[in-house]
Design a protein that fits this description.
Elements lengths: L5 H39 L5 H24 L4 E7 L6 E4 L15 E2 L6 H5 L8 E10 L2 E9 L17 H9 L15 H7 L6 E6 L5 H15 L1 H7 L1 E5 L2 H7 L2 H4 L5 E5 L15 H7 L3 H12 L8 E5 L2 E5 L1 H14 L7 H20 L12 H12 L2 H10 L5 H10 L1 H7 L5 H7 L11 H12 L4 H27 L8 H4 L4 H4 L2 H7 L8 H6 L8 E4 L7 H10 L5 E5 L13 H9 L4 E5 L1 E2 L4 H14 L7 E2 L8 E4 L5 H13 L5 E5 L4 H11 L14 E3 L9 E7 L1 H7 L3 H9 L2 E9 L18
Parallel strand pairs: 2-3, 6-12, 6-13, 7-8, 7-11, 11-12, 14-15, 16-20, 17-18, 17-19, 19-20
Antiparallel strand pairs: 1-2, 1-4, 4-5, 9-10
Helix pairs in contact: 1-2, 5-6, 6-7, 11-17, 11-19, 12-13, 13-14, 13-15, 16-17, 16-19, 19-25, 20-23, 27-31, 28-29, 30-31
This protein binds adenosine-5'-triphosphate.
Adenosine-5'-triphosphate binds next to helix 4 and helix 6.
InterPro entries: DNA_helicase_UvrD/REP, P-loop_NTPase, UvrD-like_ATP-bd
GO cellular component, one term: cytosol
Protein name: DNA helicase IV
């Protein structure tokens, strides 16, 4: 009897899986070709009315999206197989679902997001969910290059139970050890059970995901987005999904993940990009951002809007056709109370303010014109007063008075004027101290910062839009279309030959019988052909079906108000780590930051395993947190590299060159490199590193070479090698300096070095003192 050796068994497994995977690619090609053909058919259609245009656009979008998803699935199409105790056929798991032409009961490939795929991520020897064996399949292009098995059935392989809490440990570690590229990639092959639970959590309500550095919060947030789009496709296709991240650099870093999962219809934005048409990215001092982020600023903005609804300091005179009229403070107060009772929103109340002003001026004018010199009743008739009102409504002096008492305002005017004027600040913000108001004060024309965006949004909420002119224009346009449609119908009707109106022919339906002018006019209305994501991103008032916030601990109270307005259904996923909060306006605890807005309606989930940072580096970082961080949760490092992190003391004058020298040593290693440096040293260090290493970037471009960045800019990112410069300055210059240093140290996936000009602080005593390669 011959036994099969492990190599032969492996070869046989490879051959079996290759055959299956090749079949899957054949099926993928067929479906793709058919979808391309259908798309071509749709593009060839020439639609003649808005309804047909709309239908065609929907079909084109659907087929295009399908092709994008099929293309995205090409790389690593199938990565898993489940052999189940009670089923004869294996179940294959992949990036998308594929069924056979004849629609067999078991699909050829199950989408990783489908419920049937879940055991691939969550089955364990103790809770095997009916799975005997989980197989990880690795492919390069369309070739299967390896398979690795986990036996879950305790009867088959006694002793496997409890061996590891990780799913597919070998495959996972291989992924984690790989060099980084400067762009985040998806983790669909190796999602871990605690992550899977959050990814598939119910869409309703607010889920807060707290986890230490490297626990996969960003990865989980993005895979949850893909999961929700799959599970609630129809709803989210209409309402859209928003992902908010801390910086433009971070958004670039994560930008490939969702497309690689076949999902392109998501809006990604940082806070400074949340106002359509505005890029608010001017730098801001942290202490200013902190004041701007306080909840009290909602009252300040409201007071600033109210202050624009003027009562006069002294009477104004205006002249109409040579007649002088006097408008008093009391008159102005009457106009204001009329307008205020007409609408809560300033700009929407403007027509009421204008009517009140016209009424007031007309009455004064009538009094003068019709005054009986003998002191009798007014000599003007009611009709005369009506005509006067029309005349007065056209008077430029009256328009100026309306503008004075109730100006049409934009959010930019309200907030710009407020911050640009100490007097306006003093009037609108008595609750702030002089020092705080001084912090807020800036040039009226200064560029906008990210912390201004919630203030602008708040102002917009209070201003509303006076769209009466636009609505009047739309009414006129609709009437024009109606008239044109009626003419068309009349012509059609008129062209019916009188002679042919036999009884039979008169039974025929004409265009006019089928359509009325209203319907025909409707057909000529414009169709908005932008995608939901495009429309959502361009519309400040858009409300999303789901909002995901990454690095949520950084958001100020005012930013929360803005985001909650974008998601009235409160279907939200917030991920972050209160131990990594860098901004003064951000959170030291979730309770503190969320309870004012959400009460206790949110639920907390935790991630506990650090997949990024090796144990050697985490041991050092944890000491920093213990020495002065703001809480957070410990995360267990999943691997160790055996490479000790080190510290090197340098002289103050030689610091920049020493950093460049150390960076050059790291640069010889595989993968990406970041130099993290306190803001005050940024320019000198960046210059020295750039002079030494080609491709050095300081603008957050992570793919060209070493990146030199301040701690605030590396939030959420990771690099194979990290060089931290002058840790004491990082702590001293940050608002929450220990957190900043903690963030900097935990960015490394492989190697960490610290260069310091003075004594090494005690909390970093765990660092070795000799830099390798010296
Ligand atoms: N299940 C997993 N399989 C493979 N890689 C994973 C897994 N989970 C996380 N990772 C990897 O670990 C790294 C850290 O993940 P991520 O950036 O999502 O963590 P984070 O919790 O957001 O970190 P931080 O708070 O420090 O920014 C990434 O490279 C990510 O791809």
């Amino acid at each position: 009897m011959s036994t099969v050796g492990p190599e032969a068994a492996q070869a046989a497994d490879l051959a079996t899986e290759q055959q299956y995977v090749s079949g899957l690619y054949t099926r993928l090609d067929e479906i793709r070709a058919r979808t391309v053909h259908r798309l071509d058919e749709q593009l060839a259609i020439v639609p003649h009315n808005p309804q047909a245009i709309g239908e065609r656009e929907a079909q084109v979008e659907w087929h295009t999206q399908r092709i994008v998803a099929l293309d995205a699935a090409e790389s690593g199409l199938c990565f898993g197989r489940l052999d189940r105790r009670d089923a004869d056929v294996p179940r294959y798991i992949g990036r998308i679902g594929l069924s056979a032409e004849d629609g067999e009961e078991e699909p050829l490939l199950v989408d990783w997001r489908a419920p049937a795929a879940q055991p691939f991520y969550t089955a364990t020897p103790l809770h095997d969910l009916g799975v005997r064996r989980r197989r990880h399949i690795r492919t390069r292009l369309r070739t299967v290059v390896s398979v690795s098995d986990e036996t879950l059935d305790l009867d088959d392989a006694p002793g496997t139970a409890g061996a590891s809490t990780l799913t597919g440990e070998a495959v996972l570690l291989a992924e984690l050890n790989a060099s980084r590229t400067g762009r985040m990639s998806d983790i669909v092959r190796t999602i871990q059970a605690e992550q899977d639970r959050i990814i598939r959590a119910d869409a309703g309500g607010v889920v807060v995901v707290q986890g230490g550095p490297g626990t996969g919060k960003t990865a989980v947030a993005l895979h949850r987005a893909a999961y929700l789009l799959y599970t609630h496709r129809e709803r989210l296709a209409r309402s859209g999904l928003l992902v908010v991240g801390p910086t433009p650099t971070f958004l670039r870093y994560i930008a490939d993940v969702l497309p690689s999962l076949g999902e392109t219809g998501v809006v990604l934005a940082d806070l400074g990009g949340l106002r359509p048409g505005l890029r608010a990215d001017a730098p801001e001092r942290p202490e200013v951002a902190e004041v701007k982020g306080r909840l009290v600023m909602a009252d300040v903005v409201a007071a600033a809007v109210r202050a624009r609804q003027a009562v006069l300091d002294r009477p104004v005179e205006l002249e109409i056709d040579g007649t002088r009229l006097r408008v008093t403070k009391a008159d102005a107060a009457r106009v204001r109370s009329r307008a205020r009772s007409a609408s809560r929103l300033h700009n929407e109340a403007r027509p009421a303010a204008a009517r009140a002003v016209i009424g007031l001026v007309a009455a004064k004018y009538a009094d003068k014109l019709g005054a009986d010199v003998l002191g009798g009743a007014n000599l003007l008739e009611a009709g005369d007063v009506g005509a006067l009102r029309q005349e007065i409504a056209a008077e430029p002096a009256v328009h100026r008075l309306v503008d004075l008492l109730w100006p049409r305002l934009t959010a930019e005017q309200v907030v710009g004027d407020l911050l640009g004027s100490p007097a306006r600040l003093a009037a609108a913000a008595p609750q702030l101290s002089d020092a705080e108001r001084t912090l807020l004060h800036r040039r009226a024309t200064a560029p906008w910062t990210a912390a201004d965006v919630p203030l602008l949004d708040e102002a917009d909420e209070l201003l509303g839009v006076d769209d009466s002119a636009q609505r009047a224009g739309e009414r006129r346009e609709r009437q024009r279309r109606l008239r044109r449609a009626q003419d068309t119908l009349d012509q059609l009707h008129g062209s019916r030959s009188q002679d042919s109106e036999t009884e039979e022919e008169s039974e025929e339906l004409s265009a006019g019988d089928l359509l009325d002018a209203e319907g025909l006019a409707g057909r000529h209305e414009e169709v908005d052909t932008r995608s939901v994501a495009e429309r959502a991103a361009a519309d400040r008032t858009w409300t999303y079906g789901h909002v995901i916030v990454d690095e949520a601990q950084e958001l100020s109270a005012m930013a929360w108000r803005l985001l909650l307005r974008r998601c009235p259904t409160r279907s939200m996923t917030l991920v972050g780590d209160v131990a990594q909060t860098g901004s003064a306006a951000g959170a030291a605890s979730w309770d503190e930051v969320l309870t004012p807005h959400l009460g206790r309606t949110w639920r907390l989930e935790q991630l506990t395993v650090n997949y990024r940072t090796p144990a050697e580096i985490m041991a050092v970082a944890d000491e920093v947190l213990a020495a002065g961080g703001t809480g957070g949760t410990a995360a267990q490092a999943v691997r160790s590299t055996g490479v000790p992190p080190w510290a090197e003391r340098v002289t103050e004058v030689g610091l920049a060159d020493a950093v460049a020298e150390a960076a050059a040593r790291f640069d010889k290693e595989d993968g990406t490199l970041a130099v993290v440096v306190a803001p005050s040293r940024l320019d000198a260090v960046a210059e020295a590193v750039a002079a030494r290493l080609l491709g050095t970037s300081t603008d957050g471009e992570l793919t060209t070479g070493p990146a030199v960045l301040p701690p605030g800019a590396v939030k959420g990112l990771e690099f194979d090698s990290v060089l931290v410069v002058d840790p004491v300055a990082i702590v001293d210059e940050g608002v929450r300096g220990h957190n900043d240093l903690y963030v900097a140290l935990t960015r490394a996936t492989q190697r960490l070095g610290v260069v310091h000009p003075g004594e090494l602080p005690a909390m970093l005593a765990g660092l070795g003192t000799s830099a390798p390669g010296r």
